[in-house]
Amino acid sequence: MEEIQVNLRLEDRLAIVDLSGDMTSLAEKKLLAAYDKAVAQKTKCLVFNFSRVNYINSAGMSVMITILTRAQNHGVNLRAFGLSPHFQKIFDMVGLLKYIPHFAVEAEARASCA
Questions:
Q1: Domain annotation for the chain: domains and CATH numbers
Q2: How far apart are CA 94 and CA 59, in angstroms?
């Protein structure tokens, strides 16, 4: 298992969260810290880059649901790109794709934030 690495790229009212490794319960602290930092910078759209995520378990999905709930409370739009077809299906099954649209590439996800 490869512990998740989180890199936050802050831009004007947009933030990209680059993820690498495995999304498990160990990801919660890092992801919530990135979310809080982005919101503190008045981010209105947060884009998650899943292209280097190898594994997401139920605890990792729970972290995304927590972030979604917080984002809805703060008026922050969420986007994602780079999910494998398998994880796209899982996100769809738990209903996350209704609230976190998925795009093939970063440029499309960014454009949807405009």
A1: 5-113 (3.30.750.24)
A2: 13
